[in-house]
Automatic annotation (TrEMBL):
A Gene Ontology BP annotation from the UniProt entry: phosphate ion transmembrane transport
Domain ABC transporter: from-to ranges: 22-263
Keywords from the named record: ATP-binding, Cell membrane, Membrane, Nucleotide-binding, Phosphate transport, Translocase, Transport
CDD domains named in the record: ABC_PstB_phosphate_transporter
Superkingdom classification of source: Bacteria
Name used for this protein in its record: Phosphate transporter ATP-binding protein
Organism in which the protein naturally occurs: Loigolactobacillus bifermentans DSM 20003
UniProt-recorded Gene Ontology molecular function terms: ATP binding; ATP hydrolysis activity; phosphate transmembrane transporter activity
Signal sequence coordinates: none
Keyword presence, RNA-binding: no
Pfam families: ABC_tran
GO cellular component, one term: membrane
InterPro entries documented for this protein: AAA+_ATPase (IPR003593), ABC_transporter-like_ATP-bd (IPR003439), ABC_transporter-like_CS (IPR017871), P-loop_NTPase (IPR027417), PstB-like (IPR005670)
Length: 268
């Protein structure tokens, strides 16, 4: 995208640290020698939905995974820079990643339910975090499945294997699983890409309700979806952020509108 007009670009900043749920400073991600994320500074406001958009391969998933240290699981990946959360840099060796992920939950691009029952997918982490009360667990199962728009379809078969669900249902189960531990921040990597339009709307409605209590960062390919649900949008290009602003403002930019056109090439 050689002709991207940068004269009007803005990287939104929040002066009051109390408004910011999580931020990165000079965040780089390398796969081996290759620099994939090239120094990203972003602040994500509390109780809002921020969309991350950009072409395939621009680094959206890589960046999102960095926020809760999921790149630790990739042997060739190295992450440098700061991930600031409650005044602490999460990108330090001594951070208890397991505890941190309780606060910063994630739903991946491809559904990845455990090979367990629907119920156990929800209760597994809760039990490990010490919730033992049967009624409380049952309540959490119902509430989180309702929030993900799956309850009505599975309420009579909670002991069935999660792997017997359809792809779209599995993804909603993964959303329910992430919500069940009540994280402060929810990272969603194209959560609706495997969903039909009805399920997509249910999930979008849920996210809109959840933002009263949660901070949500969602990667999406779907520009209409970003426009419908997000307050702010960050536009990624080649491992950098070209623009970060209120969604309405970002979507008036002709270059970004063009990225919604399937015939559009980023390298023209
Ligand atoms: N585990 C990995 N090892 C090496 N390279 C990787 C790995 N994961 C991603 N990459 C590379 O990093 C680049 C960015 O990938 P990433 O998955 O972050 O892009 P994306 O913006 O999420 O794309 P998409 O929209 O297709 O999901 C790609 O060139 C990809 O090949
Ligand atoms: Mg991706």
């Amino acid at each position: 995208m050689k002709n991207y007009d940068t004269t009007q670009t803005a990287l939104q900043q929040f002066k009051d640290p109390a408004q910011v749920a999580i931020s990165t400073e000079a965040l780089h991600v390398y796969y081996g020698q290759h620099e994939q994320i090239k120094g990203i500074d972003l602040q994500f406001p509390k109780q809002q939905i921020t969309a991350i958009i950009g072409a395939s391969g621009s680094g959206k998933s890589t960046y999102l995974r960095a926020l809760n240290r999921m790149n630790d699981e990739i042997p060739t990946a190295k992450v440098t820079g700061k991930i600031l959360y409650h005044g602490l840099d999460m990108n330090q060796k001594q951070i208890d990643v397991y505890q941190m992920r309780r606060q910063i939950g994630m739903v991946f691009q491809r559904p990845n339910p455990f090979a367990k029952s629907i119920r156990e997918n929800i209760t597994f982490a809760l039990k490990r975090y010490g919730l033992k009360n049967r009624d409380a667990l049952a309540q959490r199962v119902e509430t989180s499945l309702q929030q993900a728009g799956l309850w009505e379809q599975v309420k009579d078969q909670l002991d069935k294997s999660a792997l017997a669900l359809s792809g779209g249902q599995q993804q909603r189960l993964c959303i329910a699983r992430a919500l069940a531990v009540q994280p402060e921040i929810l990272l969603l990597d194209e959560p609706a890409s495997a969903l039909d339009p009805v399920s997509t709307r249910i999930v979008e409605d849920t996210l809109n309700e959840l933002k009263q209590a949660y901070t949500i960062i969602i990667v999406t390919h779907n520009m209409q979806q970003a426009a419908r649900i997000s307050d702010s949008t960050a536009f990624f290009y080649n491992g950098q952020v070209l623009e970060y602003a209120p969604t309405k403002q970002v979507f008036t930019r002709p270059q970004i509108q063009a990225t919604n056109d399937p015939n559009y090439s980023y390298e023209v």
